[in-house]
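User: Hey, quick favor. My workstation is busy. Could you predict this chain's structure for me?
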Amino acid sequence: TNSQQLQQKQVLFGIMDEVNSDAFDLTSLLQSDDDEPSTTEMEQAYEMFLGQLVFSTNDPRIDIMDNYDLCVDPKWITWLEKKIGSTRDVEEKMALKDLSDMIIDVKKRVELSQAAEERAAQEAEEAEKNRIAAAEADMEQGRAMTGTDVLRKAAAVDNAGVDNMVKEQEGEQKKKTFYDSELTPEIRMSYEEMCSKVLPPYKPGDSAESVVFNFYDQFDAQFIKVLNERADNGDTGSQEVLAALAIEQQKRVNAATEALREVLSKGEPMRMEGAIVKLAKEGRIDEPFLLLLEANADQAMAAGATGPAELMKKLRARAMTEKDKQSATKEIKLLRQLLRESDSNTREQLLTDAFTPKEALIVPGTAANAERAIEGDAPEEEKPMPEVPPPDFINCCKAVLLNFGNLNIDDEQGDLSAKIKQIASEAEVVATRIYGKGMSVREQQDRAWKEQTTSIFDLETLEIEAERRGETAPWANPDAGDELFPGFGPDGKMQIGGS
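Assistant: No problem, here it is.
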């Protein structure tokens, strides 16, 4: 008995030794899977993310910003570059190369924005230090002054001097205009890529004139300031480009002048507007044409010719409306209209009209509706849809800010970035009033789960409505054995066995 107990204790002790040993430690098997995904898993994840970027209906730059950390991840960028190099499809290679360039461009813009914020913070900190130092110096000077010195200084400050000091302070505090503001290092860096495209050396067959013609729409006021600075520093390439730009601008002004003559030659205002519609369809309404109309209206108003001035304003408004119709999307068209409108109430009405769902006047003839018509059924009706969905418009505002956020042109209404942000805020208010407050992801999931189920009160309502029509709901008919779900009896209980 003692020997059996001894053997039993030794066996149990041996099992515990094995359990306490590394024999059952599976950490080494799971370490690689948990800590570092396999190459196949990463390939699949990158392919899915690439498809999300390529097939998204948003502006690619918006999706890049929404997934910024992943897009700028060095591993993802390396994988994308390898995919671009390995693909043999020319169109796919070009599309992926464009996506890669957009990612690099957005990354550069974000880094420049962060650098600008850091520089502004440093300048503000330095200005605060100088202010404190000046205040302390004034305090020390005040302590050293005698009573006579204080009276003399007070007498020297007369009313005229006070007025001059106030004017000087107002002049210093007044915000500098776009043309008076200095170029920051971040602005110069943001146009480095554009400079590499338009400045020499050129490819065979290209010249300053051809480059200016091809990139004319990208010569914004900020970029021209950069080129002027380079030209003032002796850069001959910038001087050649600016000279070619002046010639191209003169050509376009001459073309706009000829187009305006064609419009005014019609004689009657209605025919003039018809001529503008024709010009818009031909793609001849550009910025010089609109500027000519505005200049003529201002000159007529200054000369006291109210009638011609009002006509020019009316023709310009019609030209801008027709140009908006040529916009690629309805979101861009709406944004252009809102940017021109200075009255907040009018902007609110434009947003309300665009965001409000409207019934479709004509139901598209789909194949499904055609089959229903043949069978004598009514076609499927479409849900009321807004002319411009609010999420699409907000994404449009984001895209414009990303693409043109470096423009800081000051006028009576403020710079472009501030105006777009104000419009986006107004759009959010209008959308909330029409559709209600947006739901979070958790609220959307709860609503989806709720809508997939039906309460007993809803079933009771359907049953009462069926009785009013002289019908019987399937679940309330004890004789509808064939209509019951398979495997369930008339009492609603599941049947087990062959009975």
